[in-house]
Amino acid sequence: MPRAFLSAVLVTVAALTAAAQPSFEGAAPAAAPIEDASQRRDDYFRRVDEVIDWAAAGGNAKTDDPANLNLAMIAARIVRGQDLPGCSQRVIGMMREPGTGPFWMFPSVCIAYLGRDRLSPEALASIRTAWRTTRQLRGDTENHFVMYYISLFLMAELYPDEPAETWYSGKSSAENLAEARSYILNWIDVTATVGQGEFNTTHYIGEYVIPIQFLANWSKDPAMRQRGRMMLDWLFAELAATTLNGVMRGPNSRTDEGSVIERWNAMASYFSWLLFGNTPPTAGYSGWGLYFAPLAKNYEVPEVIYRIATDRSGDFVQRDRARTRPFWRYSDETSPPVHKTNYLRKDYALGSTRGGRIDPLQSHVWDVTWAEADPRGKHNTLFSLHPHSASEIMQASFVFYPEPMIKGVTFEGKPSYDSPDKVLGSSPYEQVFQDLDTVISLYDIPAGTRFPHINGFFSKDLVDFTEDSSGWIFARGGNAYLAYRPLAPYHWIPYLHYTSGWAKARLDLGGRILTSPHLKNGTIVQAASASEFESFVAFQAAIKALTLSFKLEPAPTVSMTTLRGKKVAFSYGQTPQVDGRAIDYSKWKLFQGPYLNAEIGGRKLSITHGQLERVLDFNTLTVTDRVRETTPVP
Amino acid sequence: MPSLRFALLLVGLLASAAFAAPAPAYDFFLCANLNRNYTIGSKVVANNGVYQRDASGTWQHVGYNDGTITSVAFDPRDRNVMYTSALNGLWRTLDGGHHWRICNDWSMTEARDVALDRNAPDHVYLALPDGIGVSTDRGQTLVRREDGLPARGKYTQVLHIDRTRAGRVFAGCETGIYLTENGAQRWRRVLPTTDTVYDIQQSPHDPRLWLAATHSAGLQRSTDGGNTWEKVASAPSTNPLYNVTFDVTQPQRLAVGSWSLGVLTSEDGGRTWTDRNAGLPAPHHVWRVGIDPAGRLYASVAGQTLFVSADFGRTWQPDTIAAAQVNKFLLVPRNAP
Question: What residue spans define the domains of chain A?
């Protein structure tokens, strides 16, 4: 079906059923890029309108009664100019019970700015009053701080020259503005020099880009607006380079039980859909995603980023750096570096960190994820992990007492943390090495460790599953051939799915967990495209023909020749080697690859695709676009 | 009539005796989160924060609603000047809670404790996950004073100021107890530990006697004003001890709160300890214990509420406040030092 026709149909459907989510409910979009710039823009605007229409019609409230609308829906109605008196009344009502913390602050900022010349003075005053009377919690994570301080910055700009007693913080507008500005500048500087602590998040991307978009549009300070625009490019460039047909895969600093398995089902997919149009949006546009829509038409993703997101015709490797969540205690460093490897191909992608402690609760260390034409409901991923669960490790990152932590976090959006069959989280006893589409994951778990086993996730969506007598397990996911080699004996248990981090129950949707109760352990995964082999049998034969030796004592050790002909050697506790040369992680840059490049400490990101280049330079606050005469040879 | 006259006289005497009775030397406060399972972004459904127990036994809310308040301190010159440590850092009011100010900027977060030097009451100390903040101007400005603390290992859970000397402060950190004797200009370690020190208390009866509750080093005692410490051999060290408290009414009575061990008490100055969990809801995970000015023992039981005992743990009754978690019990002297 021609894309233009499809778009027209979807627009019509959207118009007829304003409360529907046509892109969520309809067919999956094609992943291929759209060449025509005006068509891209039209499609983007149509998607934005779809979100606003849905929210203005009541969204999940399934009613147009203003009394049932949340702030996101009111924002959409303000954009549409729909029932503004009703919106004003609803805002006044909601401000009688304002929230506390960054998740309330940025929505209220959104209404305060959108409603400046639309809502009644009483409604605007009610927001301002709430910012005086209700103590706002700043939170304890990077995304909390970004939401909090950008919100505070914008409110202080909106209400300048007001005295300390008119703000919940007890600080004047000028003091609030200065503190918020200082934090925002520091966060950008840290991100542009050593990377984010919350990198490649499946959901929290929204909690960065939404307030940053507010900053880019509403700040009175042109320098802050420029920083906002540049950070949107920065974060969306990362999204583009780490997604497979719009779907975020591992590694992730923070994700949750649902999206680590159903990889598409994450707010990152909403942004891929909105900006790149290459995957369906999530249900309800991920809720928070609604707050991006009112200003979305003011931001159009640069073509170079769009191309990176939608071009999977060639294989590429990105080797990047980030950092861990801050460790307050029980660590020699506050925020050690994280080294990420991503290898993306048309049919699948592998990504990894080096393992160890990252975020004790929600990090995802490595996986191979395969492309699905329609990723909805698909568990299109394969990986293993040590299901580490220990209050001692959590104490490093959190200020709580030790014993209540494990149970406590299960009530705070991390329900699996106390479960031996969990498939989420990092472990200090896991070390990972990746070269192209080979991943070696080694485990050396001290005796007495809680959950002394490793779990391998095997999806319901794998086909041609074979436990070979050679010790390899073969399967096919989409157009990817997969080989998984457990290094110690194992058995199978059912996989029970959490639909999200807030799921109350686990669902038996199929799939299994390979569980291996051996302290010294390991996994080798090798992937290839089906198109590279005459048959699945031929792939299996190639894998079985690989030179491979391994041992588990005294330390897990693997030596092998990969499917790509590389001789790799990796021993737990040692630096991995490729073709006899040790990997020198100290030389890794902030970004290094065909698409994204930045030096550690450089404050400058070069984004390239083909002849296109955009350079974001925070040293000079400049954005430089360049079109090269010819495509450089990598 | 004589009997009536006698009765009136008796009533008068009793009334005058009541008026003439010395006022309690302390007020009793707690810092509590009443909002169960709160996470950032969820709705606040209870009035959290600082409560004072009044003469009728009722807990009166003081200040603002914040479930993250970990501690409170008052200026002995003016009870209207009040400081709280909380998720946002250090909050201060100068007018009895009508107006509050966050004293720190973004570089200080998740404050664990606040302490005010009663001998230098403009000086306020703030325990932070990455060190210690100090104000010498009633919280108007805060700076880090960490000379002598290790670059790593300075996670600070608790601060306690020697009531006998200005500028003499103990800090319970990840790597031990640190002492400054010059207002945090310089710290030195007086007790090394491998895990966090959770509580430090000075005896109200003998200022040379100090106790500290630790994660893995059991209960520690100092009898020389905190210069040297020794493990209390009779107290268990198999599990983390969250806090320790003295009884202002009886020098020999001590109590310890522990998640795994519940409530432990001693009535002989720490020579022997008794499990006082009978009557508390199992599995008697205890956040904290406290003793009020009348010698009543309190236990904050996780997932339950606050319990009180009039017989030092032999029997327990639910208290009137439905606190999900008490972060601090605090006795505040009514009179300036």
Answer: 316-583
> Which pLDDT score is estimated for A3?
41
A93, containing H or E segment? helix A84-94
Q: Rounded CA gap, B71 and A476, in Å?
A: 57
**Cα–Cα distance measured from residue A19 to residue A634, given in angstroms and rounded to the nearest whole number:** 47
What is the mean predicted confidence (pLDDT) over A60-77? 87
Residue for token pair 């005469």: A629
The whole-angstrom distance between residue A157's C-alpha and the CA centroid of its chain comes to: 30
B138: chain A residues, CB-CB within 8 Å: none
Asked if omega into A554 is within 30° of 0 (cis), the reply is: yes
Mean residue pLDDT across chain B: 91
What is the C-alpha end-to-end distance of chain A, expressed in Å?
Answer: 36
What are the φ and ψ backbone dihedral angles of A627, each rounded to 5 degrees? -120, 120
Angle at A610 between CA A234 and CA A608, to 5 degrees: 20
For all residues of chain A together, what is the average pLDDT?
Answer: 94
pTM of the model: 0.94
Q: Give A90's contacts (C-beta < 8 A, 6+ positions apart).
A: A66, A67, A69, A74
In which band, very low, low, confident or very high, does the pLDDT at A633 lie, cut at 50, 70 and 90?
low
Residue among B37, B65, B109 minimizing CB distance to A140: B109
Residue from B40, B99, B112, B325 whose CB has the most chain A CBs within 10 Å, to mutate:
B40
Which of chain A's residues have a Cβ under 8 Å away from the Cβ of B153?
329
Q: What pLDDT score was predicted for residue A500? A: 84
User: In this predicted complex, what is the ipTM?
Assistant: 0.92
Instruction: Check CB contact of A534 with chain B, cutoff 8 Å.
Output: no
| Cross-chain CB nearest to A170 (options B99, B105, B112) | B99
Tell which of A137, A144, A166, A177 to mutate to test the B interface (max B CBs under 10 Å): A137
Task: Please provide residue A147's backbone torsions phi and psi, each rounded to the nearest 5 degrees.
Answer: -60, -45
Q: What is the rounded distance in angstroms from the CA atom of residue B169 to the CA atom of residue A590?
A: 43
Give the Cα separation of A326 and A353 in Å (integer).
Answer: 17
Per-window interface: A 327-346 vs B, CB < 8 A: 328-334
Whether residue A179 and residue B129 make contact (CB cut-off 8 A), yes or no, is no
